[in-house]
Amino acid sequence: MAYCTLQELIDRYSERMLVDISDRGDAPTGTIDQVLVDRAIADADALIDGYLKVRYALPLASVPRLVTDLSLRIAIYYAHAHVAAEKIRKDYEEALKALRDISIGLIRLDLDGAEPAASGASEVRTNQPERPMTAETMKGYI
To answer: Which tens digits make up the pLDDT trace of 53-83?
Structure first.
């Protein structure tokens, strides 16, 4: 399941922008290259899944608005063939930072029962050896 759609990209960034960055043929058609945009969305979603699978069971039962927003930011960056505008690049970098924060637990997604159970790797276990100096072993010194 894709985290964003072509229509959501059009709504956020405009059809004109998508035509400008995706119509790369020798003879421009003036239309959005659906294959290129679908690939950018799929690549963005794969990146997002890589970060989310650390904390959440995939596939997500529902897609939080934050994940859709991150997918839009990353997909538009991936759709650019050349240097993206400063705003697009900055949005992409902020999306990556948010994904890192999600993966380490600083940002939690509002999903019921989606976070996998703890593996026990985060608990502290000690192996307390026998104490060499006790009242019994110190007789005669005190």
So the answer is: 988 888 888 999 999 999 999 999 999 988 8
% of the chain exceeding 70 in pLDDT: 88
Query: What is the spatial distance between Cα 24 and Cα 114, in angstroms, rounded to a whole number?
Result: 40
Angle between helices 65-79 and 6-13 (to 10 degrees): 80
Listed in sequence order, the residues at least 6 apart from 102 whose beta carbon sits closer than 8 Å to its beta carbon are 51, 52, 55, 108, 109
Q: Give the orientation angle of helix 6-13 with respect to helix 15-22, to 10 degrees.
A: 110
**Start-to-end C-alpha separation, the chain:** 73
Angle, nearest 10°, between helix axes 6-13 and 34-52? 100
Give the residue from 61, 43, 49 showing the smallest Cα distance to 99. Answer: 49
